[in-house]
What we know:
The protein is α/β, with parallel strands linked by helices. Among the domains are: about 40-295, NagB/RpiA/CoA transferase-like (Rossmann fold, 3-Layer(aba) Sandwich), CATH 3.40.50; about 395-460, no CATH class. About 55% of the residues lie in helices and about 10% in strands. It contains 24 helices and 10 strands. The chain has helices at about 5-15, 20-40, 45-60, 65-75, 90-100, 115, 120-125, 135-145, 160-170, 180-195, 220-230, 250-260, 295-300, 315-320, 320-325, 340-350, 350-355, 365-370, 375-390, 395-410, 410-415, 420-430, 430-435, 450-460; strands spanning about 80-85, 105-110, 130-135, 200, 205-210, 215-220, 230-240, 240-245, 270, 285-290. The strands form 2 sheets. The chain has a 6-stranded parallel β-sheet with strand order 1-10-7-4-2-3, sandwiched between helices. Strands 8-5-6-9 form a 4-stranded mixed β-sheet. α2 (about 20-40) runs antiparallel to α12 and α16 (about 340-350) runs parallel beside α19 (about 375-390). The protein starts with a helix and ends with a helix.
Amino acid sequence: MTDKSKSFIAKSTVKAADLEHRRKINFNIGRYNAVVPKGKEQFTDLHLARERAKNIKWRAIETLDQQLEEFELHFSRRGGKVIWAETAEQAVNEVLAICAAKNCKTLVKSKSMVSEEIHLNDALEKNGIQSIETDLGEYIQQLDGEAPYHIVTPAMHKSKEDVARLFNQKLGTPINFTPEELTQVARKVLREKYTEAEVGVTGANFIISDTGAIAITENEGNARLCCAFPKTHIVIVGIEKVIPSLTDLGLFWPLLATYGTGQQITVYNTIISGPRQENETNGPEEMYVILLDNGRTNILKDPKQRESLYCIRCGACLNACPVYKNIGGHSYGTTYSGPIGSVITPHMQGMEDFKHLSYASSLCGNCTEVCAVKINLHELLLENRHESVTEGLTTFSERMAWKIWKMASLKRGLMNTGSSDLKNKIVNKLFKSWTNHRAPLHFSKKTFNQLWKEKHKHGS
Length: 460
């Protein structure tokens, strides 16, 4: 068992028994479940919309090299600069180089899971650059020294009372401030940072290849301010976020809004195709797009796992997952939690360290059922399990246990031998790793084969 899997088991065991944590998560996910059906009503044929979205992503991923080159061509023509980063380290170094060239002391950053993936804030802090999270949820998490808890709602695990206490400790606000008052405090602090910052960093929900643009979806408007105020705008985005055409947004924006937050359309939807042009009055003087690989091509080269790159990060699978709702986002120990995180993380960060995530599933299939682009997530979790075994990432005792189980299962004489009490003792004592986190196995007093023989003997 690796250190990562030990940490996962320890954290998930604690969280699964934390009833207050479960209450908060069920409350917040319950509010999500209440509004999503309303958002879905905008689609005349939801099944067809999801099928079309999946087909568009299929085309984009199957021709990913061409799509990205087309994006670079069009984006560069408008004065933008594209940087290809194979690893997280390369992406961080590029950001630091740009910041050094701009003599950056303060950087404002909108919500971006990719920047969390490369641990950008830590690197900036080590180099004397103040990085300010401007999304309210991310700002709350930054104040508390925590990573995001959820792909879409970073502070989902906190109640309004938790946030009030945090603001009281960190910002000196009264302990009885309402959510509205706390939001106004955060707004005042962050507005000052926008005007101070030399560099703004955002992610991107989509890369649009035929126009050389990026699309950003948000509910607070902080990404727009990160783009508009600083003289330099850096976009960090995973290469899988590409879609072929600007017209595809007419499908993807409503899908993302509905499955992400239950809205018909998100409040702020922005298309940015480069730095400020001569006839434009606002926007950055320079704009960089860092196209990040960081293990994504490992998934791309696998014909079965490639489907996971269709993900639009709506977070619906997390909200539907019974495991996530019990153990929470931080237990996973990864940037991307829940079913989609369990699928992609072993390929991006190493199967040996993260194969355990593929077993953190009930295989109920609810994640597949709710996926906006119909990714067969539960099947990909099974595929991960298969790959971990074929790669030899199992212990000798585990291999022997299954070998003995297989031998016994294939021999009727062995299955019928011995009493049920004896079988229970042998199995539950021998396979301790199985019963550590599962209920003990209980054999019936007679096997089905024995019951069948008795029935037909008496019947004759």
